[in-house]
Design a protein that fits this description.
Blueprint (H helix, E strand, L loop, with lengths): L2 H4 L18 E16 L4 E13 L13 E3 L1 H4 L7 E4 L1 E6 L7 E5 L4 E13 L11 E10 L7 E5 L6 E3 L8 E15 L3 E14 L2 H18 L10 H24 L9 H45 L8 H8 L5 H6 L17 H14 L4 H13 L1 H4 L1 H27 L1
Helix pairs in contact: 3-4, 3-5, 4-5, 5-11, 6-8
Length: 424
């Protein structure tokens, strides 16, 4: 006997749903997730392959069977009978596998119960929130709904509740850890057509952080630490400190550009943006620190040069009777400012008369000391010492680098403690 005769396909109009004009026909659904193929942050979607099964009863397909066994058919019979018009809401792309034939199965029982199964791959939208990226968790949903039949004609429901959804234990993703799958359902309203039953397949994903630690956080941290090396390099080594600062700044810019290239252009700040931009600021400030050191050192050298010229102009007329070699030793700039300050205690009154000196060399030595400080009174020297103590941090380039060695690492460690305590 032909299948059409056995199932009485030609005797009924299968363009209408079962029990047309009566109550809504219940259609149970269960899903087996075969694979979760990909999650795209740029497109904000996911791709899933699943087995979608429908259960309903159509008395028009009932048949007499002495063994009470069901009959199984392929997709060719599906085109001749009524099947639920379930579609995927917010789907971008989907297809039924057709290798080697259409992956469709239809099983009909003698009492008219029908099992309709198909293997589908669907790409659906997922609204993701990247405010905590890459320390984030994402919840996506695959939504099923009847396209034509409202809740008055078709009642779509999960056949076995939470057990209607099963997953393969081998499902895994490179960047995410699948925390859980669960099912929900609710009514969806459309102003022009009415209320529809909608089923949800919800799954929660937590991103693996180790990849981003290796590719983003560790390189950024190392660049910040590398910028601190310039604090231990002498300020006169201009090429070394400038090249080091520029290199770290450009490297941080490259890291930031690489991270943003693989992300959608969202209008809010992500967690990784905070870390990278704060690291960039630390690197940039280390460059500015050297600019300040170089500028203040230049100003200090200019002041010392003017002071030496002033001392030279005031001391030259008084060098009568003193060896020229000894005078040039005092004026050639070999004495540091600290040495000049240490000589401030020698004033005109502290010099003893020439006849009380027994040695001519001691006389010449004291005269040189007197000439080097005679232009400055004791009161002026004292005020100068006080001003140097007050502006020690600004004028002493070594002190700026010394404090930077403590302030920069301490501030960055404090930032990391706050960052990881907030986002972890």
């Amino acid at each position: 006997m032909k299948t059409e005769h056995l199932l009485k396909v030609e005797d009924h109009d299968f363009t209408m749903r079962p029990a047309f004009g009566g109550p809504a026909i219940p259609v149970g659904v269960d899903v087996q997730v075969e694979s979760l193929d990909s999650i795209s942050e740029v497109d904000m979607d996911f791709t899933m392959t699943l087995y979608l099964r429908h259960y309903w009863k159509d008395e028009r397909l009932s048949f007499i069977s002495s063994t009470n066994k069901s009959m199984t058919f392929d997709g060719r019979l599906v085109k001749k009978i009524w099947v639920p018009d379930v579609f995927f809401v917010h789907s971008k792309r989907s297809f039924i596998h057709d290798t080697t034939t259409d992956n469709i199965m239809l099983r009909v029982f003698p009492d008219g119960h029908v099992l309709y199964s198909l293997r589908v791959t669907v790409t659906a939208a997922c609204n993701m929130d990247f405010s905590r990226f890459p320390l984030d968790s994402q919840t996506c949903s695959l939504e099923l709904e009847s396209y034509a039949y409202t809740d008055e004609d078709l009642m779509l429901y999960w056949k076995s509740g939470d057990e209607s959804l099963s997953t393969d234990d081998r499902i895994s993703l490179s960047q995410f850890l699948i925390q859980k799958f669960h099912t929900t359902s609710r009514l969806a309203f459309y102003s022009s057509t009415g209320w529809y039953n909608r089923l949800f397949i919800n799954f929660t994903l937590r991103r693996h952080i180790f990849f981003f630690l290796l590719q983003t956080y560790f390189p950024a941290t190392l660049m910040v630490m590398l910028s601190w090396v310039s604090f231990w390099i002498d300020w006169r080594a201009v090429p070394a400190r400038v090249s080091l600062g520029i290199t770290t700044v450009l490297t941080m810019s490259t890291i930031i550009t690489g991270v943003n290239a693989s992300m959608p252009r969202v209008s809010y700040i992500k967690a990784v943006d905070i870390y990278l931009w704060v690291s960039f600021v630390f690197v940039f400030l280390s460059v500015l620190e050297y600019a300040a050191v170089n500028y203040l050192s230049t100003v200090q050298d200019r002041r010392e040069r003017k002071l030496r010229e002033k001392v030279q102009s005031q001391s030259l007329p008084c060098t009568c009777g003193i060896s020229q070699t000894r005078t040039m030793i005092m004026l050639d700039g070999t004495y540091s400012e600290a040495d000049m300050n240490s000589l401030a205690c020698f004033t005109e009154e502290s010099l003893v008369p020439e006849e009380e000196q027994g040695d001519a060399s001691q006389k010449a030595e004291r005269m040189v000391v007197h000439l080097s400080v005679s232009s400055e009174s004791t009161q002026t020297t004292t005020k100068k010492k006080k001003s140097l103590r007050t502006l020690n941090i600004i004028q002493n380039t070594h002190a700026i680098d010394k404090y930077s060695r403590m302030i920069f690492p301490g501030s960055y460690i404090f930032f990391n403690l706050i960052y990881w305590s907030v986002y972890c």
